[in-house]
Amino acid sequence: MAVCDGGSGSSQDEQKTHPLPKNLSCDAYKDRLVQMGGLPVACEGYLLNPLDIPAFPQLFAFEKGTWCLKPDEEGCAFVDIPGNAYETTKELVSFTINNLNLNCDRLKDLRKRLVYNVERNIKKLRESGYKPADMPERLVQRYFRNKWPEFFTTLRCLLGDAAEEYLASINYQG
Hints:
Blueprint: H1 12-17, H2 26-35, E1 60-63, E2 68-71, H3 73-77, H4 89-99, H5 105-127, H6 135-143, H7 152-169
Antiparallel strand pairs: 1-2
Helix pairs in contact: 6-7
């Protein structure tokens, strides 16, 4: 399974803005936690396995303004993850966010840029005469035309029902 470098390949200029190891994420951060004894080597059940994340409902929510991911309480309430070491799916999602450092400053800044990009596209659509009711569908077409856009989960949260309807229409399986 392919994984991102979690910021470990950041340029020196990038590291001035987002110093390491504070801004490592994903497997790079998880590996650091394992090496420091903060997470077991066999961490199944302590982190969401990407293969166990259901396509629906959405397990993550996005908090605009803080640029953070958090558990989607409603979605988590409907899902049982095999091998979950915690009492609830919400706890598993929360610990995954924390143990993969998914709310480090580097990722929050990238999400912020994405939100501003979406907002610019909304403005362009409005200036082109699109009605507000038609904008979500147009935005979904724009952002999901590439099969797996960067910050897929953030886009999915931002575009809400329109994204969910689109993903269901293409038989998205996760």
